[in-house]
Structure formats: structure tokens, C-alpha cells
Amino acid sequence: MQVRHPGEMPHLTCRKAYLVTSVNAEGCHGPVYAIVTSDPSEAVDAVAASLGIEADRLSFAGFLSRRMAHHLGLKPNEVRLI
């Protein structure tokens, strides 16, 4: 029987559902998008790439609960308009 040591196990990344919103020149917030990634900056970059806009026009807005993310059927790196 082969024994696995903790150092040999692959590290799983912790993913969370983040909310990202667009911000216009006047500072008003636009639509809110949900995405499951490993950190907020990655979430902003992924939404920017998906929408074809610059990341500095987006802002991190908060988190989405695991229950709500599951209910919406969010998959990793899938951008969903909320």
C-alpha cells in the first residue's frame, strides 16, 4: 500500500464568488457581474476581458454567498450579469 504524505498532495485553490461593477467617469456604478475566481483582482481582470473594457473602469463590489453562487449555477471564470 502506497502512503501519501501531505507534501505530495496537490494544493487546491480556494475559489469564491465575487461581485464586480462598472464605474463611469462621474463615479456612478453600472451593472453588477458575478464571477467565481481565486481572488478579487483576478475577478476584475476576468470581467474586463469578458466585456472587452479596461480593468480600471471596473470595481470590486463584494462577495456572493456559496449558496447563491450554487443556486445561480456559476462555474469558475464564468461571468454572469446579476
From TrEMBL:
Protein name: Uncharacterized protein
